Amino acid sequence: MAIVIRWWLCCIVLVAAVIGGAVADDVTYDGRSLIINGEHQLLFSGSIHYPRSTPEMWPSLIAKAKEGGIDVIQTYVFWNQHEPKPGQYNFEGRLDLVRFIKEIQAQGIYAALRIGPFVEAEWTYGGLPFWLHDVKGIVYRSDNEPFKFYMQNFTTKIVNLMKSENLYASQGGPIILSQIENEYKNVEAAFHAKGPPYVLWAAEMAVGLKTGVPWVMCKQDDAPDPVINSCNGMSCGQTFAGPNSPNKPSIWTENWTSFYQVFGGKPYIRSAQDIAFHVALFIAAKKGSYVNYYMYHGGTNFGRTGSAYVTTSYYDQAPLDEYGLIRQPKWGHLKELHAAIKLCSTPLIFGTYTNFSLGESQEAYVFQGKSSGECAAFLVNNNLSSSVTVTFQNKSYNLPRESISILPDCQNEVFNTAKVSSQYSTRSTVLIETFNSAEQWKAFQDVIPNYEETSIKADKLLEHMNTTKDKTDYLWYTFSFQRDSSGDKRLSVNSLGHVVHAFVNNLYVGSAHGSHDNVSSNLNTSISLNNGMNNVSLLSVMVGLPDSGAYLERRVAGLRRVRIHQSNNEAIFQDFTNYSWGYTVGLLGEQLQIYNDEGSDKVQWSNIGNSTQPLMWYKTTFDTPNGNDPLVLNLGSMGKGEAWVNGQSIGRYWASFHIPNGDSSQTLYHVPRSFLIPSENLLVVLEEFGGDPLQITLETVSNDKLCGYASESHLCPVTPWAELMSNKGKNTRHHGRRPRVQLECPSGKAFSKISFASFGNPSADGCESENHVLGSCHSSNTKVVVERACLGKADCSITRSIRSFGKDPCPGISKALLVDAECSSRNLDDPMSNLI
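Structure (tokenized):
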């Protein structure tokens, strides 16, 4: 694979021209790497799940991944979406897997297909279709004939679909790798004697489909030959035991770029530096040759696709955020890492390997070419608190704490995992429209059924999931009883559903919910009973089905115990657990599909009243805003429910479930522009708790606020690599290096404002801090210089040098350059239109 290098003016700057055309006729492997068309490959991969974005987004997502140095797009295949009923398949819209793979091919990169078909993936029921639950005698993911029959059917369906479109590399397509099963070792022991035979069967079944490309099993250290075992996690350079055969390569199928978030849980932030450190360590210490980022773009759990308690926004902290915007510095820092490692390709793949100590917590991994003298070194500082200076081949190198320096010629450091030279970006929103007028909205209160009105009856509490068959989140449990006097009592409900809402005689009396770590919902609330007949209606709600664990088919949810107590003590007035119950699956508004234009006409909508009520549907319309910036609904004023735009669900919301600091788990909900029409877009919101729709807003999202920082520690070579290589043995370490701030606006935008600029000793944390202040040393003309270099342009570069700013503002003091800038949509063909 040819690697073409261009040197940016700001940092190392290396760009790998990846895989010319991504056309492959033959994929094999050995103990070093995958071998494509006879050539060993070092590959960087990124997970992008096609149902978590839209077909209109796919080209941009893939292009940005490729620009970021990604060679392979990896995706799961989602069985429950593709086969909602046995033998009935759906490959349309966001489920058009063939279109997705062909888009990857069109952009000249490879694909990895993780068929599973159990995927986990924080996807409801782990991607298994719920109809499997009704197959007699079935035990999921075990040596069980019914499960193996349906699993093989679906796997064969997907493989044949890919073959019919010539999408495997053996046919000249982009798919170079497939996966069967998923992290099975986590549950294998629970199946006892039925576990190991299932692993053997799955491997043999997959290989027998003759795709012509290798298969992997992640986290399966005994993956049968020729299936490759691979690692998942955040630190596979430390935790991976390695391939289970010397003839298999070292592969990392999931390098978690952050972590999924749950309602009630705060986001997990993983730094670009930490990701880069562990990638470099895996390449060096484990001789890794394939690293996949999970996720490279997370996207959106549209509709009811997220698993239990998982937020609608998925892996928003990935290099490409939920909306497909580039998240800096993560995207840029990893891009530079990929290019630096690609410079080491020949010695990494073909060289001899040595590892030795450089200090108490420091070590070197050296790869020496066998014939032409190539040499690459990875210098590691494992100290978590202190930077150190080490000596390697008679030269000194400063290694920041927990960092790795990459030396493609064993002399010149072109990249350090802790030294971020990429720009930082800050995401912000702009208010487009408010829906604060009651006249804009219409409302419909869903029906609260009583026992006599239900069509399903049982003398016990039915299990929730088996009753709803995953067709809805909602199941009504109702009962009636006679009382000969009125008075106050206390209703006690224990549920394994995620939420329970209680109504007595059609009046709302309270709600309770569990959490991701404790799913049990326990409701205790005071109630008033009538003299005569009393109707109790309990709404059990699931926020996604479980996605993992052994014996998933045995999991239960819904109400487990219902009692009415005396009002002031624990004495039981009556236990209704084993009683005559009536059931209604789903809400009336769901059944009538009142979230689309046709269904909306089936009910009588009214004006919004002065007080909010539970189980309310609200509808309004809005026009599509101009521009291309992603759109979101801010639902921070709402409680819990689901939202639709033009009949398409943008997912569940639960804004009232706060994280420990009091913030909502998620307030912004993605509205893909492809869901919209030019005007009169129908917005329908189902609210369970009684939120306020008059505070909902429509906003655009952008990453137009940028920060760049350059100091002595951000020196970057501008000398062409060929010249550096020709000066082997000479002290070229600082030759031609000039620290710079280089900034680039998002596509179609230009710099409109410089909000902060200082050449001197500004904020010590550089771009790590959002609050920048002037230090004791500052060049007064910094802002003028930066504005002259940047305003009106799509990108700009400013050297951190005394010459750039006219004079030295404070001789003898080490100086840095810190710049905050803002971009906006401009006519880039008219430079004057970009000026402020």
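Residues 739-834 form a domain with the Jelly Rolls fold (CATH 2.60.120.740). The first strand starts at residue 27 and ends at 29.
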